[in-house]
Design brief:
Chains A, B: Residues 686-744 form the Glycoside hydrolase family 65 C-terminal domain. 2 copies of one chain form a homodimer. The first copy, chain A, has 761 residues and is α+β, with helices and mostly antiparallel strands. Chain A has 2 domains: 4-271, Glycoside hydrolase, family 65, N-terminal domain (Beta-galactosidase, Chain A, domain 5, Distorted Sandwich), CATH 2.70.98.40; 302-683, Glycosyltransferase (Alpha/alpha barrel), CATH 1.50.10.10. The longest helix of chain A is centred in the middle third of the chain and has 23 residues, at 490-512.
Chain lengths: 761, 761
């Protein structure tokens, strides 16, 4: 089954096109280009014509209505960088566009195995002659700065002149939507062109633009490779460069026009030198060879990340799209991370959140651990800024990671559901601990992860205090953003306990390995013993009366908001209710304690989870796209596989069905990761335990089975689940411990394992 | 003893001048003019040249860093209206300024009995000749739009030409300070001149300016009355009008130059017609007669508001200045209120806060009840907007008064220490109930106060809920702004209980009087019974362990911030600590529970107050100017009169000593009221009880006595306290109940009352 997403004969409405701009974006973790039409849209269409470099940002003013101490008044924002998408095509002087009279067979195909996005249509001239035009785009996984557009023109019966205008703009404006708190509200010219050069000999345009404030530069180089029928004509050079190729089109001859763009930024490249050598590299191979390499890269990816369900084709399309989006979105260089919208749009201003660690890292940890390690390295590069952030918040020690950031500066404007979400600290620690357990990668731990865990632990000890014998954490916000700045958020306290206990557990190893950071940070045995005490004394609120875990100290005492009685148009509630109103009620935007039931399942017995799940489910609106996937996983934990399926259905198709009505602003990257979690951690019941990988499969009625690959301790495993048996085999690597249901074995390449599927848990 | 504030031979530093601009401002509750030099300052001085009309505002953008639902993104701001202050004086072509070489005897006098502000100096020409120049300003209490400047020039030995240039600018810019959260951060041209006219026959300039957004107009009319030596010369007319008067100055002849300005606004006047008739009215009398009327007005004021301490002259200056500031600041027309900075500057953007009801109204209630009634009427005029505000906050019934406003729109940008201070509702209700008890003014209650009390009570019932048998109020902020959005703030809950109980008590009276609002609001007996139940069930948090009242549900469980160990430069803490840090600690910006001990003293026994006072005193930084006066009053309640005196000292001189370092932005109007409270409610121990006025005097060692006048139930009382006896007499009015210490009598004009002073309580 080929991995393709297609849209055939779609309606040319603005809404659909904006949505497709997102869905058909092409990205490689370094650059991302939205799927805009090369020829543009009619004037009354709103388009977010965008191209982004991961980690390239400017600093925008963030005016606070009241500027209290420590409120950031600058924020980092992703930049819409140089626009090289525009290509206009004229046949006998008539402009060829998808909007032309008589256009038919307008199709788009995202080929996730080839790593290209194709758009094609049959165009009809005023005289009634037809040509097929197609545009194939690629952002190269093997040469990250490279973006290509290949235009192919085949005449059915047209004969005449052809003229192709290709534009190269050195800067672009960010998209603006003043009515949505999740989007930028005002247009800003962040980038300005510093130098435009057209090299006639090389037929190469090079534009360098600089940011207003962050002192970054972006260089784009554009050149073309065209069929012999075409000849270079006019070149106009201004702040932009526009080149025209002219020729003749006849029946039976295919015109092929390739536009190569290279995107280089000053954070990673030497803009004086690197541009030229990249051009040379690209020119050394024909486009087909770049296509070939792209396919090979993805071939490896799909082998490592293989994941499929038997019995639900639409779901598989969505699963493929999710995993493909993740590999498209993830920064792989330690300088960048994964933005909430990947590289597909400017929603949330390109910020990195806890989404990475809790929703997306497990996928990389289990399929592409090199990338997971780079994501940890990224956090390490901003550790110093996290220390500064902790000082701003009044903490005398430790580091507090920013809730929203690109290069480390806190960019969240409303601290109650931003900076106050201290749990990002324990989320990062959790992901490091999980990564270490899954991979055994001691080097990453000693170089990056260990220091992060120590510094975030120090923050916890400064932020919390003993109240009698209890260690408490006050005035923080948990994952649920409808209940902010509370005392003893259960999720946070439990995550901190987990992190502290693990630090205590890892400390002898750090000592034994003579970890550099122990000296650097002057870690003492006493300090570690303080962590142990605090973890042991950690207060975890519980209602004896209701026999459930309390989301925080006062949550259960508030009146329940009857969300089932509210009109549908009131959702998401954040757009229709004042925060004070929401905070005053029992209502949850998303999984909070239920997320703890997943991440820390070993800390609970199933009956307690069941009671808590039933209670909090009634209160949760799932107004966050991070919610349904977690409810799905925990439904599986409590054995309600059909409910798990319903939540999974909801969660897995958010973008391809645009069910949250904002996919036009970019994909929901965390939800892509959540879909992976829902299948692998939910239905397959995978858990990374200290000494074993664990599977507890459950299949919903609709499916006959599922299969996927994971990497555990460096070994590549393949898992096939159906309603008869679970078959686990090892493709490469050394023997590992594996537990299926409650049976444990050592799995090796020689010894695969089949175990009967259990209908009842 | 004359009531004057003087500054003699003061330093011409920018700091001192900015401070004097505030201290020597002249205002009458309608207009306020800062004490700027007519001739201006040297170029490198920063001056806030200001003139304001109470209640005249524009609407400014208030950008929220994150625009959540219900966050206001507009705010009302006081306007710096037309500038008519400028008068330049030239002698033989040399400009006369206070900054000239050889200037001496530079003095300022604010005469609080005459109601004028005088500035004078002796100026020396380059040739060494001297003249005395003086500027006397008045904002008329008897003709509110009128502002006059009288310039007098007396030659010692100068003979030569004199030239006076008088300017009239129809608009001015608001003052800007980007570094202070309490001031506006960006310059805005709110007013633009729509029409400038100079009437040659009448020698009158008239400029009309309109606001950008609020659709208000301000008209200013300027004309002059000059000694016969001067003749009108050049008139320049542009957006501004500048007129020149020329003449000769000789020894022995005084030149007198009077500039009349009239300020009219479109909220109160018909700008087409009223200007002309005001000009006529002013011209009907010579300036001296306007001075005379001013003095008569103030004579009555000082008789009604008489207040003096024996044995502390500086304190009396400060007391006089406080009361004078209050009469200068208070809106007296039901359209306006009292801004936090009065009409002396643009600090807090001219907003009205709870300061009015809790800190300033008691003064008016007891000395000028007509004004107190107008302040209640003002709240009534914005009741409809308060209802709208309640809907924005999600409440299905009732009204929530805006925390900061001018004409009713919530203008607070940070809701945790703004909109969340719901207690403004019960503060307004409290002031109405107190006013009614002090005056017996049933008419005000039936027309305005009653409806406000019902609508605010409805809000409470919607905002709170029953938790078991307790009625609780969650997610609100009490007076202490270092602890925000908490559950069951003691002060709030107690104030609400008080308000609900009083509504229950007043209901039969409302029914008997067939109050219109009962029908209008469809008040039912059941509703009233619900208030009774909620009041009875009101939860008031108390720590059994510590035996003190808890500021809120979790306050006492937080770590204490050791404020005595913090460096001095860390204060005020709000400028040096992130709110989350402050919220996480036991630390108070101001009196919170201690304010409840004052306002609701009958609800506590003295021992409980003593314990609470001792506890909370250690936690309070008094970073708010509203704090010390309350600590002084409650120190008196617990019998520590010397501590009371120290707090009173601190609080009573904030502006004249500029101890908070921001008097340059305007007076601390609430503190002026607090000073009154400190003396009358503190040392004299006055309370307005349901059926009696109560006095419990205590005098600090330093004073030999004090005396003051109050109006109670329409009767004017005079109270003299010394360490021998308390002497209460009635000047006008019907007999009233009076209680001194624990003795109660009926006081009448015929029967005054002397009772021995009790050294020990």
């Amino acid at each position: 089954m080929s991995k393709q997403m297609t849209r055939r004969d779609f309606a040319l409405t603005n809404e659909e096109l904006r949505l497709q701009e997102t869905l058909f974006h092409t990205a490689n973790g370094y650059i991302g280009v939205r799927g805009n039409f090369e020829e543009g849209y009619p004037e009354d269409f709103v388009s977010s014509r965008g191209q982004y470099i991961n980690g390239v940002f400017d600093i925008a003013d963030m005016k606070q209505a009241e500027q209290l101490y420590g409120f950031p008044n600058k924020k980092e924002v992703i930049l819409n960088v140089a626009d090289t998408q525009t290509i206009r095509l004229y046949l006998d002087g008539e402009e060829v566009t998808a909007f032309g009279q008589g256009v038919r067979e307008l199709n788009r195909v995202l080929d996730m195995e080839k790593g290209t996005a194709l758009r094609s249509f049959i165009w009809k001239s005023q005289k009634g002659e037809e040509v097929t035009v197609s545009y194939r785009r690629m952002t190269s996984f093997t040469l990250l700065p490279l973006f290509t557009i290949e235009v192919t023109i085949i005449s059915h019966d047209f004969e005449g002149s052809v003229s192709i205008v290709s534009e190269h703009h050195g800067s672009a404006q960010n998209f603006v939507n003043p009515n949505d708190p999740r989007m930028a509200a005002e247009a800003e010219d962040y980038l300005s062109v510093a130098e435009t050069r057209y090299d006639e000999e090389q037929q190469l345009s090079k534009i360098t633009a600089v940011t207003k404030t962050s002192e970054l530069s972006v260089q784009t180089l554009v050149f073309h490779d065209v069929s012999s029928q075409l000849e270079l004509g006019l070149v106009e050079e201004d702040e932009s460069v526009s080149v025209v190729y002219d020729g003749q089109l006849t029946v039976g001859v295919t015109i092929d026009f390739v536009k190569y763009s290279l995107f280089l930024d000053s954070r990673r490249y030497d803009l004086e030198k690197d541009g030229g050598s990249f051009v040379e590299t690209v020119r050394q191979k024909p486009l087909n060879q770049w296509y070939q390499e792209q396919e090979e890269y993805l071939d490896k990816f799909w082998r490592q990340a293989e994941l499929s369900v038997v019995g639900d084709p639409l779901l598989n399309e969505s699963l493929n799209y999710s995993l493909y989006s993740l590999i498209q979105s993830a920064g792989k260089d330690g300088i960048s991370n994964i933005a909430a919208k990947g590289l597909s749009g400017e929603g949330y201003e390109g910020h990195y959140f806890w989404d990475t660690e809790i929703y997306m890292m497990p996928f990389f940890t289990l399929t592409y651990p090199e990338i997971a390690a780079k994501l940890i390295e990224f956090r390490y590069t901003i550790l110093e800024k996290a220390r500064e952030n902790a000082r701003i918040l009044g903490h005398k020690q430790g580091a507090l990671f920013p809730w929203r950031t690109i290069s480390g500066a806190e960019s969240s404007g409303y601290y109650p559901s931003g900076t106050a979400q201290y749990h990002i600290n324990s989320d990062i620690a959790y992901s490091i601990i999980q990564y270490y357990q899954a991979t055994g990668d001691l080097d990453c731990l000693l170089r990056f992860g260990g220091e992060i865990v120590v510094e975030t632990s120090r923050l916890w000890l400064d932020a919390g205090h003993y109240e009698g014998k209890r260690f408490v954490l006050n005035c923080m916000t948990g994952p649920d953003e409808y209940t902010c700045v509370v005392n003893n958020n259960y999720y946070t306290n439990l995550s901190v306990q987990y992190q502290l206990n693990w630090l205590v557990k890892l400390y002898p190893l750090f000592k034994e390995q003579k970890a550099d950071f122990l000296d650097k940070l002057q870690v003492t045995d006493q300090e570690i013993s303080d962590y142990e005490s605090a973890a042991a004394a950690m207060y975890l609120p519980y209602s004896e009366e209701k026999q459930i875990h309390a989301q925080d100290d006062s949550f259960l005492e508030k009146p329940v908001l009857p969300i089932n009685e509210l009109p549908k148009q009131d959702f998401p509630l954040l757009l229709h209710y004042h925060p004070l109103y929401l905070y005053r009620h029992q209502v949850c935007k998303q999984a909070d304690i239920v997320l703890a039931y997943f991440l820390h399942d070993e800390a609970f017995d199933t009956e307690a989870i069941q009671r808590g799940y039933d209670y909090y489910e009634k209160l949760t609106t799932h107004d966050s796209s991070l919610s349904s996937c977690i409810f799905s996983i925990v439904a599986n934990q409590i054995g309600d596989v059909e409910k798990a399926y319903r939540y999974f259905e909801e969660s897995s198709k958010i973008d391809i069905t645009n069910s949250h009505h904002n996919t036009q602003d970019g994909i929901h990257a965390a939800n892509m990761g959540g879909t992976y979690l829902g299948l692998v951690f939910g239905f397959a019941g995978l858990r990374i335990r200290e000494d074993s990988l664990v599977l507890t499969p459950r299949l919903p009625q609709k499916w006959t089975g599922c299969h996927f690959s994971v990497n555990y301790q460096g070994s590549q495993l393949h898992i096939v689940i159906n309603k008869e048996e679970i078959h686990v085999s090892m493709e490469t690597g050394a023997p590992v411990n594996l537990t299926v249901y409650d049976e444990r074995r050592i799995l090796s390449q020689e010894n695969d394992w089949k175990i009967p599927y259990r209908k009842e848990r």
